[in-house]
Design brief:
It comes from Leptosomus discolor. By secondary structure, the protein is mainly α. The protein has helices spanning 22-34, 48-61, 74-87, 98-105, 110-123, 126-143, 152-164, 173-191, 195-202. It has nine helices and no strands. It is globular.
Length: 211
């Protein structure tokens, strides 16, 4: 039978800031603990069956999540994170703000583009904004790891469809084709914003993030 639809991001977020779902925090923490020496982080797929199994366990856990330290293959942990983000009813970049993100990323002037993107990010629902910030800081750390060989361009290709998605739940084949390069551009542009911008959303309450 089909897994139940996952709901929107806010359904999984804690009640105190930063509003980042425990599953996201735990996956990112585990990846940073032992994945930053792995080539192709987030690009190499994990075993699908294990990804599904662990995602189900984490979503079912409620309070304390089962430890991911027992997952031998770090690519499975990456897969759980991507699968969770992809399974949301609405991507992290919400349907209503989707056009604004695409437009902002298209601005040729870097400074103007950065200003526009910051403005659109600030309009996201708080849980989406905090989670996006948390993920951007994580992906910047991945991009800085020489062993991963995952620069901003590679990461934006992997995370464009996952984070930006489409402007509706049922995009046409044409929209899918047109959106794909633009999704990557949005993520690449977001990753070029200064880390301090992202830290502003998640570091105020950093101690709450420790799982």
């Amino acid at each position: 039978h089909c897994p139940p639809p996952q709901g929107v991001l806010a359904d999984f977020a804690p009640t105190t800031p930063p509003l980042v779902p425990a599953l996201v925090v735990q996956c990112v923490t585990e990846v940073e603990r032992r994945g930053l020496t792995e080539t192709g982080l987030y690009r190499v797929p994990g075993t699908e069956q294990l990804v599904r199994e662990w995602k189900r366990r984490l979503l079912r856990a409620g309070g304390t999540l089962p430890a991911l330290g027992t997952v031998a293959d770090i690519h499975v942990v990456c897969g759980v994170l991507k699968d969770f983000l992809r399974g949301l009813k609405e991507p992290l970049v919400t349907f209503s703000l989707h056009p604004a993100f695409l437009q902002a990323a298209d601005i040729p002037d870097d400074a103007a583009c950065g200003t526009a993107l910051r403005h659109v990010v600030s309009k996201l629902p708080p849980a989406n904004r905090d989670t996006l910030a948390f993920l951007m800081l994580h992906l910047l750390r991945v991009s800085c790891s020489p062993d991963c060989k995952m620069d901003v361009f590679n990461l934006s290709r992997v995370f464009g469809p996952t984070l930006v998605g489409h402007g509706s739940a049922n995009p046409t084949p044409l929209a899918i084709m047109e959106d794909t390069p633009r999704q990557c551009k949005v993520v690449a542009r977001l990753l070029s914003l200064p880390p301090d911008f992202w830290r502003g959303f998640v570091e105020t309450e950093q101690e709450n993030l420790v799982p």
